[in-house]
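User: Predict the structure for this protein chain, please.
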Amino acid sequence: MIPKFLQSSRRGFLGGTAAAAALTTLAVPARAQVEVVPLDRYQPDYLTAGEWAFVMAACARIIPSDGDGPGAIEARGPVFIDRQLAGDFGAAADLYMEGPFNPGADAYLGTQTPLTPARIYREGIAAVDQWCTDDNLGSPFAELDPEDQDTVLRALSSGDLSLDDELREFWALLVQNTKEGYFADPRYGGNHGMQSWIYIGFPGARANYLEWIGRNEAYPLGPVDIAGERA
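Assistant: Here is the predicted structure, written as structure tokens:
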């Protein structure tokens, strides 16, 4: 299930992201016929080995594998995050990045950090790992047991694990990107085998299923991705 510090219902936690992430146009272009290698042999495009271990561990706790649907690891959400950070999203290509910046301003004023999403991840991961090591946990986040990892993520979510103002979007980015990787079209690296679409009964990029709208019965056909592959 979703850890209690995030939300009590997996469907409730994920529902707000599903439709938006599934068919949205993302920053990293599709890769034709990419070999799907096991995650322990995946070579990240942006993340270092230590950062990759952090993202793997964090995704595994944000959407765990022991719920009633696939977890973020089964959906290969960390691959999605790495590819996004290596592309236009990570470089803030679509964000206004001219100063002046006031990172300590009220969050309602919008993004105020001079750091790109890729740099927020890099510096945010380093800061959390340092906190874990210095706070008597004795090890970087990825090396902690799941219960301690939940404690760290709970502290990050509540603000008890305080990051510099320039990094305060790190937790929100991590959660949002994990959910996007869970639901996005498989061409972007996540939602492996369209598992999340199968889980929620989403038909994907099927051209027409209007005749099923409003019918109180399950849609009988599996999802189709943008490339035309069927689950």
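The two ends are 24 Å apart (CA to CA).
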